[in-house]
Amino acid sequence: DDEEEEEDAAAAEGEADGEEDGVEEEEKTLTVLCDLCGKARILYGPETESDALSGQWDCSMLSRIESCEKPDDEVTAIVGEFYASAFARIGLVKRLDLTRAVPFELRNVARQASTSTVTAAVTASSSSSSADNNDDTPARSASDSSGVDSHLVSEDDAFWWIAEARMYETEELMMSILEDTDIMDALRETAKVATLKDLADITDLKKLMKTVNQRLDASKGLDVDQVTAWQTEARERMESEVWLKDWDFDDQQDTKRHCNVEQ
Fold first, then answer.
1. Contacts of 234 (CB under 8 A, 6+ apart)
2. Is 38 left (phi over 0), alpha (psi -120 to 50) or beta?
3. Which contacts of 75-80 are long-range, i.e. CB under 8 A and separated by 24 or more positions?
4. CA distance 230 to 20
């Protein structure tokens, strides 16, 4: 009994400490690519510790997905599974594909998919009602029948889907070039350098280094050769993706605000 009382007391103390800190530990996540379909899969908590990740990995190894049929997790995180599946059918499989889309075309595909689903659901509902000979049953609306509103997706919605995809792709590209979150944050916060275009457009390297280096530890201080190499890589990446040539700091920050992403 004494041992149980001590354990309860210790548990209560731990809970009190947690409440006092007011900080909840975030669940660990890890994004991996399927070696078969190339789609991104976002792993959570214990999934990130799987031994299978050390070798070839595919969607079938993730019990909640089990196959490559499910749409890409990164696209789903932006547009939802229904529209991610619809876009995949026209070749917009990955988040990078979404960055290249045109808003009005994306809107049209989304509306067509919604309308088809609603029509099928209403037809099925009507057939069922007729079979039951229940004339008193109210007609079901499009949203009641399928959970999808055919008028929900606007060109503005499509624009922000594309913008959000570009925001995340830009962050990944910048990290692949800079390879350091502290440097990435310092460039953004002190020099408004948040995209490949911003990086490539820097002209006064000495001024940049003076400003940014005040924010960084001495061990991470920038030098001319380093920044020049980054600029060269940024320009090379921009040649392969046209939208990167126009995507700048303001675009990145506006999208973060719209999507409520922490700045």
1. 177, 196, 197, 199, 200
2. left
3. 75/40, 75/165, 77/42, 78/161, 78/164, 78/165, 79/110, 79/161
4. 44
What the block records as the tokens of 27 is 């669940």
Q: Which two tokens stand for residue 131?
A: 């079979």
Give 184-238 pLDDT, tens digit per residue. 999 999 999 999 999 999 999 999 999 999 999 888 889 999 999 999 999 999 9
Asked if residues 101 and 164 have their Cβ atoms less than 8 Å apart, the reply is no
How many angstroms separate the CA atoms of 54 and 32, rounded?
Answer: 11
Is 0.70 surpassed by the pTM of this model?
yes
Measured CA to CA, the distance from residue 112 to residue 118 in angstroms comes to 10
